[in-house]
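Look at a sample.

——
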Amino acid sequence: MIPQDPVMLLSFINLKLRDYYGSLEQLCDDLDVNEHEIRDKLASIDYHYNEERNQFV
């Protein structure tokens, strides 16, 4: 289960990307979550995935 609050989700996702996954796609596949929903929810607080940094900034 992933956090529903966008700010908590940001922290959760960036931690997982930093410590466990090489890409957002890998994270979503492994956790069985929809990548577009993650991107949309974090875009709502003006955070966008940066592939080079492998984090939402």
Summary: The beta strands are 49-50, 55-56. The chain has a mean pLDDT of 98. The first strand starts at residue 49 and ends at 50. Residues 4-54 form one domain.
